Amino acid sequence: MLLNIDYLILNFKGSLDYRKNYVDNVGYDVKPFHLEQKEYGTKVFKNAYDLFYCNERVGQLFSVPRSNVIDKELIQFQFENHLFYSNTLSELGEMVTAFVNYYACDLHSINRLDICLDTKENSIKYRNLYNDLNAGTLLLKGREKQLASYGKTAKGRGLFTGFTVGKRSAARFLRVYNKTHAILLDEGKKDYITDWHNRNGLTASAGLDIWRFEYQLNNKFFADKAQINFAKEGETQPITWQIFNYQYLVDLFNYARTNHFEVVYNTGKTETNKERIYDFIDFSKLKRTPFLFVARVSRKKQLNTLTSVKRVCKGLFRMYYTKQSTAYLFTMHKLLTENSLMDWFKRKYDFYVHEFRDKEKQRGYFNEFAFSAYFNMLDKQIINITTQYNYVNN
């Protein structure tokens, strides 16, 4: 069972000018972000940009609202989907922190947040759940809400692939669907999600697919809940920065389910709150990984040196991919080791190879076997050197 963010739009207030403190402390030469303006805006915003962080496209940025009703300082940032599957929540929090340190704006609120929970199940279980809800054998707690199914045909036969609870325009909207089939329909565009599943031990098998519970939480949901805190009763913290804390994300998912997707048996009692809970899935078993919450840093703080190192390592890997020279690989390995970034690079490896090959259309023959062999050799050399050093000093 895995939980993650799948979609995120953040609201900022301010401008896209550089912060004076940043320029004074760091200078104009170090630019972690840059914008590429699109030819046209949107219905809501006059300006639309592609946002790049360390030369990697990380999302879209929108500014200058067309309507006078909307605050003229509103800026919206929509993340690229693959970032949620190739970065930790803390790394995404660091990127947002770097953004507000670089540009003259502040994180204001959440426009939309989709939280997804993936689990490995038999499709019959969810088809029966939907049928029992329709038949009234099972009930949903809370107010009246829409319940609808969707599917497709396979060899002429109807195939159930999921259902929805609520309206898209509502404060919260739930999609329950077969993610394995959805990824296949995307024709390889979201294989990085499958890679993420495999890395975390959640792999589809015969008769068992990956099913996803995906809560879409809109700005209406957060409007009345700007100060939610699940840690200690009576204490409140802004929800905006809390979403980069995994524990908080787990609690927020469970909070969204309250009186919305709580399934109970129908034994004929007058109130659904008095009915016994139907535990079709144990949500309490959510894997609670100890991600570190990234607090907002001082604007006077200089650019994180690790950001520069990551940018250099990606450039060296690109050069190796193109020219196959081990000189680039040796330098990159040295930087990764000295800065404890090896795990970061391993998470980004598949995405970078895909980017160089399919997006940038880099020429050259990349031999993955030769790369792995040389990389492993460098790892062994470091282990041997460390062992010898410890032996001499002891």
Q: Beta fraction of the residues?
A: 25-35%
User: In angstroms, what is the radius of gyration?
Assistant: 24 Å
**Order of strands across the biggest sheet?**
2-3-4-5-1-6-11-10-9-8
Give the count of helical stretches.
13
Instruction: Report helical residue fraction.
Output: 25-40%
Shape: globular
Distance between the termini: 45 Å
- Tell me, rounded to a whole number, the average pLDDT: 79
Please write the string of helix (H) and strand (E) elements: EHEEEEHHEHEEEEHHEHHHEHHHH
User: Biggest β-sheet, characterized?
Assistant: 10 strands, antiparallel
Structural class: alpha+beta
Low-confidence stretches: 288-303, 382-394
Number of strands: 12
What do you see in this structure?
By secondary structure, the protein is α+β, with helices and mostly antiparallel strands. 38% of the residues lie in helices and 27% in strands. It is built from 13 helices and 12 strands. The strands form 2 sheets. Strands 2-3-4-5-1-6-11-10-9-8 form a 10-stranded antiparallel β-sheet. Strands 7-12 form a two-stranded antiparallel ribbon. Helix 10 runs antiparallel to helix 11, helix 10 packs across helix 12 and helix 11 crosses helix 13. The longest helix has 26 residues. It is globular. The two termini are 45 Å apart. 23% of the residues are buried. The C terminus is likely disordered.
